[in-house]
Amino acid sequence: MRARPALRPYLLILPALLLTCGILYPFGLGLYYTLFDFSAAKPRPDLVRLHNYETVLTQDAFWHSAWVTVLYAVGAAGVETVLGVAVALLLHRSSLAGRVLEKILILPLMIAPVIAAIMWKLMLQPSVGVINHLLEPFGLGGVQWTDTPAGALLSSIAVDVWVYTPFVAILALAGLRSLPLSPFEAAQVDGAGPWYTFRRLTLPMLWPYVMVAVIFRFMDSLKVFDIIYALTEGGPGDSTVVLQIRAYLEAIRFQRYSFGISYTIVLWAVVYLAAMVLVRHLGRIQRKAAEVSA
Amino acid sequence: MSIALRGVVKSYGRTTALDGLDLDVRDGEFFCLLGPSGAGKTTTLKAVAGLERPEAGTIEIDGRDMRDVEPYDRGVAMCFESYALYPHRSVYDNLVSPLRSPRHRLPPAEARDRVDTVAGLLGIGDLLDRMPGRLSNGQRQRVALGRVLVRPARAFLLDEPLSHLDAKLRQQMRAELKAIGDVRRTTTLYVTHDSVEALALGDRIGVIRDGRIVQTGTREDIWYRPYDTEVARAFGRPRINLLPGTVTEAGRFRSADGAFELPLPVRAAPGTEVLAGVRPRDVSLTGDGHRLPGTVYVTEVLGRSVEVTVRIGAQALSLVADRAEVAGLRPDDPVRPAVRPENLLLFEADRPHGPGRRIGRR
Amino acid sequence: MRKRLWGWLADAALLLYFVFALFPVAWMLILSLKPADQLFSTYFSFTPTLDAYRTVLGDDEGIPFVRFFVNSLVVSLGAVALSLVVGLPAAYASARWRFKGSEHLMFTLLSFRFAPELTVIIPLFVLYQKLGLFDTYAGMVWVLQLVTLPLVVWIMRSYFADLTPELEQAALLDGYTRRQAFFKVALPLVRPGIAAVSLLAFIFAWNNFVFPLILTSHEAQTVTVGALSFLGGDRPKYHLTAAAALISVVPPLLLALTIQRYLVRGLSFGAVKS
Question: What fold characterizes domain C61-265?
Answer without folding.
Answer: MetI-like fold (1.10.3720)
